[in-house]
Specification:
Helix content: 25-40%
Radius of gyration: 21 Å
Strand content: 15-25%
Structural class: alpha/beta
Strand order of the largest sheet: 6-9-7-8-10
Largest sheet: 5 strands, mixed, barrel
Number of domains: 2
Low-confidence stretches: none
CATH topology of the largest domain: Spore Coat Polysaccharide Biosynthesis Protein SpsA, Chain A
Distance between the termini: 42 Å
CATH superfamily of the largest domain: Spore Coat Polysaccharide Biosynthesis Protein SpsA, Chain A
Number of strands: 17
Length: 360
């Protein structure tokens, strides 16, 4: 393990498309979505222990989840939990992390990744990360892991890469990023053969990404660089509480990755799924002979290709339906077409508008 290798796990989202299981007070990263007794955050943390030690793994989250993070990851100290006072998307989050790590270790090389991805082959995943770390150690490069697509998915961003590659094996220069295309565009991307899904897993030197912020996101850089004397001190949180909410709400893809010229990608095949919505979990789960995924005490009759989830101690009976989501969280029951899962985020907002925060 390289002493200058760090990991930052982003765990501040609310998981709106996983409603009603994912709630404001306990979002999906703290839930046992995969059904193996571990939260998604815990699974991600354990995966990165194969790369570096626990004291070099940081969690970036909303301040209200600090205690939950500590509960799920007792191995880390409170100084390893970066508490955002507001949800400003991923660009400010990445910049905050980079400033903190660069102040701690000017030679810091770090991975930043979401907490809610399902990865099947941890060994291949770690090998790809190590390849990226070696590349960034030798080049002023911003590297992202790209996933070879197997379907024209419209819920993912895409990376187009240049096929000639670099002097490093399986590392390619990125030509452009495209956010969530329509179906016809996604189909054309698959046919072209030079597009990958954007997994949102980035590897870079802290110094290199900060230079990119100075050039392409100067407002964020100017605000957060004022805290250089406070990072990794008792005054850090007070500084962040004041200045972080002033940063623009923008993703790192839009702020940096679509503008920088030193972007590279590694095509990866370690079995990846972005658990952004119920459909992804359905796709990755074991199914019965009729294509159903059942969780809890469930009786079905003449039911096909459905995801049905019930709470402990409650019997769910479903019959005569196909392609349905049935999610029972006791105080909220969601019954919705599986092919319209992207509407669940809006349904959650509607529930909050009509009934307040009680059900979200």
């Amino acid at each position: 393990m390289n002493e200058h290798t760090y990991v930052a796990i982003m765990a501040g989202g609310v998981g709106s498309r996983f409603w009603p299981a994912s709630r404001e007070d306990k979002p999906k990263q703290f839930l046992d979505i995969a059904g193996d007794g571990r939260s998604l955050l815990r699974m991600t943390f354990e995966r990165f222990l194969k790369l570096t030690s626990a004291d070099k793994i940081y969690i970036v989250t909303n301040g209200k989840y600090k205690d939950l993070v500590q509960e799920h990851l007792p191995e880390i100290g409170p100084q390893q939990i970066l508490c955002e006072p507001s949800r400003n998307n991923t660009a400010p989050c990445v910049a905050y992390t980079a400033f903190k790590l660069h102040t701690l270790d000017p030679e810091a090389n770090f991975v930043i990744a979401p907490s809610d991805a399902l990865i099947v082959n941890d060994t291949l995943f770690t090998a790809n990360i190590n390849k990226a770390l070696r590349f960034t150690a030798e080049h002023d490069a911003l590297v992202t892991l790209g996933i070879s697509p197997d379907a024209p998915h419209t819920g993912y961003g895409y990376i187009q890469f240049l096929e000639e590659g670099t002097d490093a094996e399986d590392v390619y220069r990125v030509k452009r990023f495209t956010e969530k295309p329509d179906l016809s565009t996604a189909k054309s991307f698959l046919q072209s053969g030079d597009y990958l899904w954007n997994a949102g897993i980035f590897i870079w030197r802290a110094k290199t990404i900060l230079e990119a912020y100075e050039n392409y996101a100067p407002e964020i850089y100017a605000l957060l660089s004022q805290g250089l004397q406070y990072y990794n001190t008792e005054e850090e949180q007070s500084f962040i509480d004041e200045f972080y909410p002033q940063t623009p709400s923008i993703s790192v893809d839009y702020a940096i990755m679509e503008n920088a010229k030193n972007i590279f990608t590694i095509p990866a095949q370690f079995g990846w799924s972005d658990l952004g919505a119920w459909g992804a979990l359905y796709h990755e789960s074991e199914k019965d002979r009729d294509g159903n995924v059942l969780s809890g005490q469930v009786i079905i009759e003449d039911t096909h290709n459905s995801y049905i989830r019930g709470p402990k101690g409650k019997l769910i009976v479903v019959g005569g339906v196909d392609d349905l989501l049935v999610i029972d969280e006791e105080d909220v029951l969601l019954v919705y077409p599986r092919n319209r899962e992207q509407e669940i985020k809006a349904l959650r907002a509607k529930a909050e508008e009509e009934y307040g925060e009680k059900f979200v």
